[in-house]
Specification:
homodimer, about 250 residues, alpha/beta, 60s Ribosomal Protein L30, Chain: A, Alpha/beta knot, 2 domains, six-stranded parallel beta sheet, four-stranded mixed beta sheet, about 20% strand, elongated
């Protein structure tokens, strides 16, 4: 089945950032064009992307479910992954960089929200492993609000090897671990390259990766842990607060 | 249709915090009992809650979809709402209190994640309006990981009136508004009762409520806005950082 994305924001952002991914845009026939849909039509014209008006009422997602398309679907090529070695090599400015590593996020809502947070926070990349990670499907693209086209996503065969390589290249590894006692506020995120590592909601981070980490931190809570995408947002914004305002 | 919840955490937390809500627990027949499922069986015994083993394979959610039940469903009475006036009156300790007000969150994933964040952050209540708010359904309870039983939820006829009443009672109203320039870090969240107000992803906060607000703040971003539940988590944890660590 051809890849597709849906939802106004996801389509607008893909047209703005990666129009080359789009094969065709279909807008619901007879729908009133609001500002966002008008923007989509104009962007299609500007980028020479084929669009037409068709009947999307019977459109079902990859699980055979109806979803709220917001009147627009685009057929697309998959999100291109960035090469890990290339990413490591390309630090022209010499500025400190910050990334997110996902060790087995299987829920597309969480994955999409984390990509969006990484883009909002100006993070440099997201690294995912081959296994135990949700594919970048239409739900992920929708929830990311098109941010998949903004943040480089790197897929590696082995997260362990990638983390070892990061360490060899002077990166610090900070793992989110609900079983530790160390508060995330006690880390100084300034003046270093760092990777924030998040594990799956069920199992957390795999032991080997926890053992490779330089710091293990948690968010203090009065009730279990936070949703992983919320937890990620809290820490990303704490790093930004420290880097930009202290 | 009878209310139900599903998922191990949601059922465990409901058994721990509100066993009186549970009419019956059904565990998938023939499933291997892991620690969480064993805990559910033991909690049912301790709380005298009826449970049995049945076939859940054909179980469909309220939209007629299959969902990952994690082997357990519980039939429950609805989450009881807290009375607004009672909440206002009951500040025995005289300590400053903090709440979240939701002006039209329609996505159950966001609603559930916000409830979980409020519980994790020790917030005192969540206020929702009659209209434009997602009902507390099985998805919300699942995503909240059972936190619906931890944080008092107040449903009011008019959010405008509720906010006016809060102001009369010496609460400060802080609205999240992507159109403002004020950084959320510039507010001093200590030494006051405050309500953080979040609007719907599509429309934001209604104008009347924005006009009633004492502060309008936003998260600085390099790409659109964050997912509303992520945004909520960032601000909740900034308030906790200021209150507990500065």
């Amino acid at each position: 089945m051809e890849n597709y994305i849906y939802g106004k924001n996801a389509v607008v952002e893909t047209l703005l950032n990666s129009p080359e991914r789009i094969n065709k845009v279909i807008i619901q026939k007879g729908i009133g064009l609001d500002n966002r849909l008008k923007k989509i039509v104009n962007l299609c014209k500007d980028c020479s992307v084929v669009y037409n008006f068709g009947d999307l009422k019977g459109f079902l997602n990859e699980n055979g479910e109806k979803v709220n398309l917001q009147g627009v679907v685009a057929y697309v090529s998959p999100v291109p992954y960035k090469d890990f070695q290339e990413f490591l090599d390309e630090n022209k400015s010499g500025e400190y960089r910050k990334i997110i590593v996902l060790d087995g996020i299987s829920d597309p809502h969480n994955f999409g929200a984390i990509i969006r947070t990484a883009a909002a926070g100006g993070y440099d990349a997201i690294i995912i492993g081959q296994r135990r990670c949700c594919p970048i499907n239409a739900t992920v693209e929708k929830i990311s609000s098109g941010a998949v086209n903004k943040v480089p996503i790197i897929k590696v065969n082995s997260l362990n090897s990638a983390i070892q390589k990061l360490k060899e290249n002077d990166w610090w590894i900070i793992a989110l671990d609900v079983h530790t006692e160390d508060n995330y506020l006690n880390i100084d995120y300034k003046n270093m390259n760092f990777a924030l590592v998040f594990g799956s909601e069920g199992d957390g981070i795999t032991k080997t990766i926890l053992n490779l980490s330089d710091y293990k931190v948690k968010l203090p809570t009065q009730f279990e842990s936070l949703n992983v995408s919320c937890c990620c947002a809290v820490i990303v914004y704490e790093t930004l607060r420290q880097i930009n305002y202290t």
